[in-house]
Amino acid sequence: MSHPPVAVRREPPVSDRLPSGATVTGTSGATAVWWWPIGGAAGPADLALLRPSDHERLARIRTPARAAEFIISRARIRTILSEVLDVPPDVIELGRRRCPCCADPDHGPPTVLQPPTSRWIGISHTEGCGLLAVSDAPVGVDVERVRAVRTDVLASVVLTRSEDGYLRTVPEGIARERAFLRVWTRKEAVLKAVGIGISTDLTVIETHPRSAGTARVVAGLPGAPHTWSVSDLSLPGPWVASVARHDGRPGPVELRRA
Q1: 20 to 30 A Cα–Cα from 156, which one of 15, 45, 95, 127?
Q2: Residue 50 phi/psi, 5° resolution?
Q3: How confident is the model at residue 201 (pLDDT cuts 50, 70, 90)?
């Protein structure tokens, strides 16, 4: 998972945002997004839910904090999916779909390998917070913790000309850092939904940061939907998050605390 800089300046109107615990129901094609706080060490119950593939990834994590973040998030994901899929959490096997660009099975979008399901999932975690999205169509999520960021240095490799122009109108400091992270999480949510991650030219993906709440983002990548509906998620605490869904079937979003 990539970890750039921080959160968003202009907050969307309350009617356009999805506050924690908000529920939008009654429409087919809904996307559910769960979030959970991450703090402290992982417990035995969390470790018990890890599968062999998780332990392989865990062995490559170098810091205790990141290891705990991974363990806790994996446990929450399996607990949530066990309720969604109506199976015990310890039988859920997570993996990846094939990359839409090169068909490599090692870096496509995340998926549930077992039990068989038609649902799509999106996963993200950062310092102090994790996210899981479940949808009936391709979906991606990204969450970033608010922190100091050199927006002037990153602008040339992350922002379109329009995005850069917008950020220059935002006061320096936390406001501009939050605005930058609105752009970043929107881009990464789309690229995670596609399944390629941050491996393309970010300066050609326009996220329309002036559009608060939801924006249409064109990715233009082979083997994936061309246009995405990207919504800002309103989380309590120092985090910025976005969810990207296939624009042809966006449906409502339901945000829940796990």
Answers
A1: 127
A2: -75, 140
A3: confident
Sequence letter at residue 207: T
Are residues 121 and 23 in contact, defined by beta-carbon separation less than 8 angstroms? no
Can you read off the two tokens belonging to residue 117?
Answer: 């399901």
pLDDT digits (tens, 9 = 90+) for 114-172: 999 999 999 999 999 999 999 999 999 999 999 888 888 899 999 999 999 999 999 99
Contact present, 16 and 191 (Cβ < 8 Å): no
Alpha-carbon distance of 57 to 68, in angstroms, equals: 12
Q: With contact defined as beta carbons under 8 Å apart, do 75 and 88 qualify?
A: no
What does the H/E/C string look like for the chain? CCCCCCCCCCCCCHHHCCCCCCCCCCCCCCEEEEEEECCCCCCHHHHHCCCHHHHHHHCCCCCHHHHHHHHHHHHHHHHHHHHHHCCCHHHCEEEECCCCCCCCCCCCCEEEEECCCCCEEEEEEECCEEEEEEECCCEEEEEEECCCCCHHHHHHHHCCHHHHHHHHCCCCCHHHHHHHHHHHHHHHHHHHHHCCCCCCCHHHCCCCCCCCCEEEEECCCCCCCCEEEEEEECCCCCEEEEEEEECCCCCCEEEEEC
- d(CA 243, CA 140) in angstroms, rounded, equals 6
pTM over 0.70: yes
**pLDDT reading at 42 higher than 70:** yes
